[in-house]
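Hello Y.,

Per our agreement to keep a running log of every chain we model this quarter, I'm adding this entry. I've kept the format consistent with earlier entries: sequence first, then predicted structure.
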Amino acid sequence: MESRKTEKILLGIDPGTNVMGYGVLRVVGNKAEMMAMGVINMKNMRDPYLRLGRIFERVTGVIDEYKPDELAIEAPFYGKNVQSMLKLGRAQGVAIAAAIVRDIPIHEYEPRKIKVAITGNGAASKEQVAGMLQRMLHISAEDMEVQMDATDALAAAYCHFIQMGAPQSEKKYSSWKDFVKKRGLTPNPSPKEEGSEK
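Predicted structure for the entry above:
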């Protein structure tokens, strides 16, 4: 582990049974850039087991295309009903299995930890997370995915990038405000605050 690779590809996954998001980051030294993001849509599939098969097939396809070194996946959040948790857990498990088959190390992060890593606020909205990622990764408006599942997945990958300690080697930050100031970022999406949309 002493000789760290100068380039690393990180795959982020936001598990879902209707729509699953994925995001791919290329890390070179202490800088990250978005390679791709998108969604795996299963809304038109009635059979829950065929949906799981589709997840496995598509996640394996994304892995084979981008050759990630590591997978960062969002943990299912608690508080939903048991049936929803079970379905979400199955979807997450299938995505993890796809990574295991390709010998990719897996890192799981709670939704709150991901939001704190990106925005500094564990209760941030999906829109705030997406807006912050857009600024930090310099993603053009045309390249922003309309479905928030994709940006949530990219957020999981970026959270892992931060956990790897890469940004700290670039500059030292005394606080979140210091980080925002030194990066020339604005902490919130500002006046353009859209209404809450699920």
